[in-house]
Structure formats: C-alpha cells, structure tokens
Design brief:
With 219 residues, the chain is α/β, with parallel strands linked by helices. It has helices at 9-13, 26-39, 50-54, 58-62, 97-109, 125-129, 132-135, 150-156, 179-186, 201-212, and strands at 19-20, 43-46, 64-67, 72-75, 87-91, 114-117, 140-145, 162-167, 194-195.
Length: 219
Amino acid sequence: MDLRFDFARRARIGLGEAVLCAGKSGQQIEHVIGLALARDTPLLLTRMSAAQFDALSPGCRARTDYDPRSGTAIAGPWQPAAGPPRVAVVSAGSSDIAVAHEAERTLAFYGEAAHAVHDVGVAGLWRLLEQEAELRHYPVLIAVAGMDGALFSVLGGLVGGLVIAVPTSTGYGAARHGRTALFSALTSCAPGIVAANIDNGYGAACAALRALRPPAAPA
C-alpha cells in the first residue's frame, strides 16, 4: 500500500502525525493502525465515522478507543490525561460541541486534561459571565463558536490567557458555513486572539500544546 507514515514527527516537533480518516477506505485505516500497533506506538485518528470504525476487524477494534462524539479514535497504548487542566475548552452552543470534543480528545491523547465549559454563547451573556472567574485561571483557552463568532471577542476581553478561536460551520444563510465566524476571529478588536481553521478542533488543540510546552530538543 502506498503509505509513508511519519513516525519520527513526535520526536521531531513534539506532535505526532494524526490520521485524517475522512476520504480513506477501511483498508487504508486498518493498515495504518496496524503499523502503529506493530511499533507499540499510540496513534490518533480524526474524523472517523461510526461506519468506518465498525468496518475494522474485531481485533483492531478491540485495541482502538473510539469516541463517536468527537469522531476520534486512539489506537495502541496511551494514558488518559491526568493532573489539573491547563486548557479550558469553551463552546458557544450545543451544535459546536463535536468540534470542542475533538479538541478535548486531542489534548487528552497528549496527556493534557481540559476544563470543558459548554453552551455559553453570548446570546445569553450571563452564562459566560457565570464562568468568568473560573476561566481567568487558564493560560490557554480554546473558544469554539459558529454563527457570528461573537464568543471570541467577548472571551478575549474578559480573560488574560491565550484565546484560540475555532470557528464552526454551524448556522445558515450569512453564516456562510463558518466563514463569518472565521472573519469575526480574524477581525476581533480583542488583542492577541489567534484563529484555527473552520471546524478544526484538532488544530486548535495542537496550537494549545505548542503554547504550553517548550520546543522539542533537536534530534
């Protein structure tokens, strides 16, 4: 099979190669999981559907932790996140939670616990303000929102930690499949907000990990 997996990436940059399952066949997914299992190396897979997971062989499924909420799977040996969380994952509405869960699972894969705060969109501002004192404690916050993306600027004006905005493709009409929320993040008047791509909870978590960790030692 024409596949060249970058097993040295984690040693090189501190973040391993993840497998994007969208568009891949069950044979391709099982093959790369088998490569990781043969090396006894943990592997993160994203955007895996329930049908793709069910299509894996029983032995492969038994060694793969699949989370349907986030569409992520972790194959091979790994330890769940432990210790006090250093990242808060804040989502605006229940329609954004799948992307938020993808960020949380990515952090957990790398041993970082996350404090999750969901359904605090600014249409009911009191919900976010109730969490303000708690959220001030986190050095990094991942904010997940669709529609107008107003959560990004409001949160960025309340807390001192790094805010990583993740626009989602929720909403309709002028929400433009997440582009409006993305533009809101990019044009925010709250200084220092950075933006991940639309629906990219995985990328936001990786940015948070880079912010929290020292650079990997040269190979």
